[in-house]
Each structure stands twice: as structure tokens, then as C-alpha cells.
């Protein structure tokens, strides 16, 4: 963050929650790990000089702990101990930060007991974590424990972040693309008082660009591409991220590529990169829209991943369409203080015609009780039925034609799941090899085991009560 936007960040600490993933081996015995894990385990991170603008509350040993629960406990504990010094909060992705809030809701009493006694919980068995946290918990602090207990015992956790970390100036995390789903929840827990900052656009393959207006609204985030990071070319796409040309998914049609200086304002592209590390014309798979220029460098908005679609017939719904539809529909929950905290989808083709299934986890914004299950929202079934039809009304022309005219797609279904279901889903994917640091809730479920988990948590099911509106296009 440039100091001209938020001054004096060198006068406090950053509670950034970072996590590593255990290394794996390829069939031929070569070590394999994620790019972020490689960085955290490298000398560039572990042997870095002290930087007052990046003074983290988390000791390095807690970040490098392979057990995500032990790492989370220790990192949150360190953040709470230094709560009066924390000037910014964050994680790589918004989902990881909300995961931390969920962990805090379940475990704040134990965290307070650690602070009160000055002793680390016995379930923390990692030797490096116990060693470094003994310095953080150097003496018992009953007063601090009482402060945190008072805050966390409130009926509502709206604005809890500002109360626990009163000097925090913003939250930094990726909130674009599929992460935009988490913006309302982040605003709820900060009471809308902390800006949501998304500073950069990067991937494992390449660093692409920076956000020159970091304090802008999440919906207005645009990244200025940095030409010195690699050689960028662009594959033209249609208005919804669909290919304009007919060729195989893995092909790179060289004669159709557009270079950096010839992209057009308002048009959609998939980036194709040639990197210093040796990738040659690698298709990244993202959909970007050119929204402006800084000098001659294009400024792009991340729209979605190209291959995230749900389909049961000739219609194809991409991530952007699905997110826009759910965003419109969830507004119907607001009069009931209902907050949609997470969702995913599944194309159910077990019956004919097939239909879309949406799994929704809903949190009651006005009530926080001792039992997680008591957080479930009691909403009249007709409201959820209206949510179903509201989603369908926002889906594209082809989907509505299939539903209303062709009858090749059945009524959309919303299955409401228990609170904490998507935490369990995340645990499942982590157990299958996903990285907690880079985990994103899949917007379309393909794993049979993950689907079985979701269905085991369903508390109610609702279907669209009528066909969505559809008018034939005139020739």
C-alpha cells in the first residue's frame, strides 16, 4: 500500500494470515509445492530484513506450520495479543480471512484462556509454534482476556473487527472475481468502516499488474498491467467470456492474438503470457475486460475464470452470470436480516430434465448465539422460492429459453445448508490436497464426495414456482 493513501503504516503491525501447504512428490520423486509455499519457505521470506511497513503479528514459525488449525490458532492469538498495535488486517484471499473469523467465533474462549493464563493450548503440538508463542505469551494478561471476552460475548458480531482491532485502517485481500461474493460478509464484520483493499493481480505463472487506486470500491477495482513482468498477448473473447473463434481449448491461435498496445477499450480478452521462467504463450484462463489505460498500459478488470460453468443442456452459465444472479436474488433475504455467506452450484441430471441446484449457507445478521445451529435463519418458504425465480430471471437468454420454451431445463432449486457447511467443504478439499492459502470455494461442484457432504448438511429445499420470463428475439 502506497503511503500516500494510508500514512503511518510503519508505526504499527499487520495482522496478515498466511498459510503453507505440505509438499508433495511427483511420480518420479521431484518435490512439488504451491508458489506461495515456495516463497514462504525460501530465504527471501525467512531471511528478510526487518521492514517497518511489513511488520507481521504472526511469527514465521506459525506461518510455516503445516497444520492449518494450529497455524490459525497461533496466528489469531498473536494478532489478539497485539490488538492495539494492528493497523491493517488481511489474507491472500477474502475466503481465507472469513475462514479466520469463523475460527475465531468457535474458539475465542480458548484463545482468551491462553491469554489469561499466559500458556498455549495443549492441542498445539508443533514444537516450533510452541517455542515462538512462548515469547508472545510471555506473561499472563487477565485484563486483555477480559477485554476480548467482553467484545466476543456480544449478541451481534457486526463490526467485530473494528472492536477487536480498533486502530485497523483497512482489510487487504483479493475481492475480485469469485471472491466478490465475500464483500458483504466482510462489510458486515467491519460494519462498513474498513476499506477493502485489493492491491494486485497475480498468478502462479506471472505477476500481471497493480491497482493504482487501492482504496476504490471493490466493484471498481482495475489492474494496470506491468509490461516488464512478461510478454503479454491477448485472445479476444465475446461479451460473456466466450470464444469468438472456433478452436480447441488448449490451442493458441497465433494469428488471432492481440498484443499489449492493441487491445480495445471495453473488449474482453483471455491473457496469454510468455514469462522469464520459460512459459511460452501460456493461456492463463482468466477473462479480463479492458476498462482504461494508464499512459499506454491497459487497465483491466478481472471478470471470471473461463472454465467455471454450469450446464445441463445447450445453455452455458459462467461464473460471472451465476454470481450476478445470486447477488440480485440474495437481496430478498435482507428484510429478514439474512446474509448469504457462501454458495456453490451443481447440475443435477439425475432426473429429466436436469436442473440447477444452488447450495446456500445463510447467516442471521442480527443474532449470534452459543450454538452454531441456532444461527440458522427462519425464513418463510415463499421467500426462498422467490429467490429461486430471481436467480433464473437474471440468467442469460439461452437459459431462460431452455426453461420456458424448450423445457429442456427444470426449475432451479436452492438447498439451504447448516451453518459451517462451507467450512466443512473447505476442510474436505484441503484433505484432498488443496491449499488453505489459495483455496477458493468452487462455484460448480464436480466431486461426488464433496456433493455427498453438501447433501448431508441440507436443512430445506426450495424450487422456482414458475418459469422465468422469456421473449423470442426478433429476426
TrEMBL record:
Record lineage: Eukaryota, Viridiplantae, Streptophyta, Embryophyta, Tracheophyta
Segment forming the signal sequence: none
GH3 middle domain ranges (all copies): 223-305
One Gene Ontology molecular-function label: acid-amino acid ligase activity
Provenance organism: Vigna mungo (Black gram)
Protein name: Indole-3-acetic acid-amido synthetase GH3.9
Every GH3 C-terminal domain range: 320-448
PANTHER family: GH3 DOMAIN-CONTAINING PROTEIN, INDOLE-3-ACETIC ACID-AMIDO SYNTHETASE GH3.9-RELATED
Family: Belongs to the IAA-amido conjugating enzyme family.
One Pfam short name: GH3
InterPro entries assigned to the protein according to its UniProt record, in alphabetical order: GH3, GH3_C, GH3_M
Gene Ontology cellular-component annotations: cytoplasm
Recorded superkingdom: Eukaryota
Keyword annotations: Ligase
Amino acid at each position: 500500500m502506497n503511503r500516500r493513501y494510508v500514512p503511518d503504516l510503519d508505526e504499527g503491525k499487520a495482522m496478515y494470515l498466511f498459510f503453507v501447504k505440505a509438499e508433495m512428490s511427483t511420480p518420479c520423486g521431484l518435490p512439488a509445492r504451491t508458489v506461495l509455499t515456495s516463497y514462504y519457505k525460501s530465504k527471501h521470506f525467512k531471511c528478510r530484513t526487518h521492514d517497518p511497513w511489513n511488520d507481521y503479528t504472526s511469527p514465521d514459525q506459525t506461518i510455516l506450520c503445516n497444520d492449518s488449525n494450529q497455524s490459525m490458532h497461533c496466528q489469531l492469538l498473536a494478532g489478539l495479543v497485539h490488538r492495539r498495535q494492528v493497523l491493517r488486517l488481511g489474507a491472500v484471499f477474502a475466503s481465507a480471512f472469513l475462514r479466520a473469523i469463523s475460527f475465531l467465533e468457535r474458539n475465542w474462549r480458548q484463545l482468551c484462556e491462553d491469554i489469561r493464563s499466559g500458556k498455549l493450548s495443549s492441542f498445539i503440538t508443533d514444537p516450533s509454534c510452541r517455542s515462538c508463542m512462548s515469547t508472545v505469551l510471555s506473561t499472563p494478561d487477565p485484563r486483555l482476556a477480559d477485554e476480548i471476552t467482553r467484545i466476543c460475548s456480544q449478541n451481534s458480531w457486526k463490526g467485530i473487527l473494528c472492536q477487536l482491532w480498533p486502530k485497523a485502517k483497512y482489510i487487504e485481500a483479493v475481492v475480485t472475481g469469485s471472491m466478490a461474493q465475500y464483500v458483504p460478509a466482510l462489510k458486515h464484520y467491519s460494519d462498513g468502516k474498513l476499506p477493502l483493499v485489493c492491491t494486485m493481480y497475480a498468478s502462479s505463472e506471472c505477476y500481471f499488474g497493480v491497482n493504482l487506486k487501492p482504496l476504490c470500491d471493490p466493484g471498481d477495482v482495475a489492474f494496470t498491467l506491468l509490461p516488464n513482468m512478461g510478454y503479454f498477448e491477448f485472445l479476444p473473447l465475446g461479451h460473456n467470456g466466450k470464444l469468438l473463434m472456433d478452436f480447441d481449448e488448449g490451442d493458441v491461435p497465433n494469428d488471432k492474438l492481440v498484443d499489449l498496445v492493441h487491445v480495445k477499450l471495453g473488449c474482453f480478452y483471455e491473457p496469454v503470457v510468455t514469462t522469464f521462467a520459460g512459459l511460452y504463450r501460456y493461456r492463463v484462463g482468466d477473462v479480463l475486460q479492458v476498462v482504461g489505460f494508464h499512459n499506454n498500459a491497459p487497465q483491466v478488470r478481472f471478470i471470471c475464470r473461463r472454465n467455471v460453468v454450469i450446464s445441463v443442456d445447450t445453455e452455458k452459465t459462467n461464473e460471472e452470470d451465476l454470481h450476478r444472479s445470486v447477488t440480485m436474488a440474495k437481496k430478498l433475504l435482507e428484510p429478514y436480516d439474512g446474509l448469504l455467506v457462501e454458495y456453490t452450484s451443481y447440475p443435477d441430471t439425475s432426473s429429466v430434465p436436469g436442473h440447477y441446484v444452488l447450495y446456500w449457507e445463510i447467516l442471521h445478521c442480527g443474532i449470534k448465539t452459543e450454538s452454531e445451529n441456532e444461527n440458522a435463519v427462519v425464513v418463510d418458504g415463499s421467500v426462498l422460492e422467490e429467490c429461486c425465480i430471481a436467480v433464473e430471471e437474471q440468467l442469460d437468454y439461452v437459459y431462460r429459453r431452455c426453461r420456458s420454451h424448450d423445457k429442456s431445463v427444470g426449475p432451479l432449486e436452492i438447498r439451504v445448508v447448516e451453518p459451517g457447511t462451507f467450512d466443512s467443504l473447505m476442510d474436505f478439499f484441503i484433505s484432498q490436497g488443496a491449499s488453505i492459502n489459495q483455496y477458493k470455494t468452487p462455484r460448480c461442484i464436480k466431486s461426488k464426495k464433496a456433493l455427498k457432504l453438501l447433501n448431508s448438511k441440507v436443512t430445506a429445499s426450495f424450487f422456482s414456482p414458475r418459469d422465468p420470463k422469456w421473449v423470442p428475439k426478433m429476426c
